[in-house]
Design a protein that fits this description.
It comes from Halalkalibacterium halodurans (strain ATCC BAA-125 / DSM 18197 / FERM 7344 / JCM 9153 / C-125). By secondary structure, the chain is an alpha/beta fold. It is built from eleven helices and ten strands. The chain folds into two domains: 196 residues, Alpha-Beta Complex (2-enoyl-CoA Hydratase, Chain A, domain 1); 48 residues, Lyase 2-enoyl-coa Hydratase, Chain  A, domain 2. The protein is 48% helix and 16% strand. The protein has a six-stranded mixed sheet with strand order 1-2-3-5-7-10, sandwiched between helices. A four-stranded mixed sheet has the order 4-6-8-9. The structure holds acetoacetyl-coenzyme A (CAA).
Length: 260
Amino acid sequence: MSETVGVEMLSSGVCKVTLIRPEAANALSVQLLEKLKDTLEALAFQKEVRAVVFTGAGDKVFCAGADLKERRRMEEEEVRRTVALIGETIEKVAKLPQPTIAAMNGTALGGGLELALACDLRVAAEESVYGLPETTLAIIPGAGGTQRLPRLIGVGRAKEMIFTGKRITGAEAYLIGLAQYACPLAKVETLALDLAKQMSANGPIALAQAKKAIDNGIETDLATGLELEKLAYERTISTKDRLEGLEAFKEKRKPQYIGE
Ligand code: CAA
């Protein structure tokens, strides 16, 4: 059976995860999803992984979402199981402690865009298209799309995208805040890897705590969020990395963080 998910550890501490089904627009088949889920479960515990970049094989599509050909052959129960598997897998992306970046090196639709929405940042290709076309297939975005998209771009714009199923360009995705960067397709991966490298040089416990404080804080009121921030800060105070940061500053050198 051919490999559907590639995992490459770079010397910078960045792990590149590639969806590999270019013949099927990197669609999320059950086989790919199971491999991706196992990969994510492992990455969450790997201390040497400081940031994760998701990308798609080929030069046209990041991910076309659910495998529609596979789904056509499924009975209702199997569809339910597969939708749950997509949801669980994408939730594992969101719950990774490391910073995550979707290097959307081409079109991302449906579950493909939902995977990107579960990442911390998104880099889009100016000329590619992005959308949640589920209602055009008489289903709804079911892997976080109805929740994460409005939080990111506002309720009105999210409803427009979901109700019409329209596809917007990467340039538009940047303008409405869906993507944090838009650049020519050929530069997407380099830009994303560069951002991830900048993050991977920072204290890993600090990154994980900042991510937790932001993600949990945004779901609550300001006073509770500030309490969560206090707890997250507290977790960094007793670390060796905090002392290393101060030492490196004194010695005018780059800090070497170890995640302890
Ligand atoms: N599932 C399975 N195969 C897919 C696929 C998908 N989602 N999307 C594309 N493919 C296949 C095509 O059938 C084609 O295969 P063949 O050569 O064997 O015909 C191959 O990938 C290349 O596709 P195209 O020839 O269409 O290439 P393109 O560059 O012209 O267009 C595309 C690419 C824009 C992704 C277009 O194929 C497309 O619009 N695909 C459908 C995407 C879609 O509707 N996704 C939403 C799925 S629903 C969902 O994700 C909800 C959920 O449950 C999570």
